[in-house]
User: Fold this.
Amino acid sequence: MRHRTVEDLMTRDVVRVEQDTPFKAVVRLLSDHDVTALPVVDGLDRPVGVVSEADVLRTVAGRPDPAGLPFAPRTNGRRPAGDRLTAGELMTAPAVCARPEWTVVEAARVMEGNGVKRLPVVDAREALVGIVSRGDLLRVFLRHDEALRDEIAGEVLAKTLGLAPTDVSIDVREGRVALKGRVRTEALIPVIERLCLGVDGVVTVTTDLSSASGVPRTAGTDG
Assistant:
């Protein structure tokens, strides 16, 4: 089975800024390109941080309130926004990055573990080649049910496990897979469940499978 990778899902034309990009230019780029964050790169186009709308708003919140209210949220030591404030001072660093060959699961785990909504994607030289967001990763769950059924039937059951089309029936609705039939051995049932769950876009797998008696068939070797 071929899993969709970060390279398949990422945005390649990435709007980025350098560390000395002024505050107002950062805000303008966020607005003009309708994005919520920008990778901040060094002179070799390597991500050193990410500046987001939240970073900008956090800095703005540290400015004196025009109504004279005494409360001001914490600003992590950043000075009030102004023309001299730069992306390097606004950004959250270091940048948490992904590799193009990562699977959706790998990228999702890194996002979750680091509490970030997007990952700059870097090549072997650590240079920026794309950016992947949570929304990009979720696109695998928009695959059509028929595509999921075809992959399970062809790649999982036939090619990988050597089962005949008549052995197991497959019903897929809204990414939920239901399998029914007879297989060679009891031990094969959890293997089928695990492999089907590994198909990109599958939400759940339920099985009504029993094991057949007699000598197990030899798995197919084609492909």
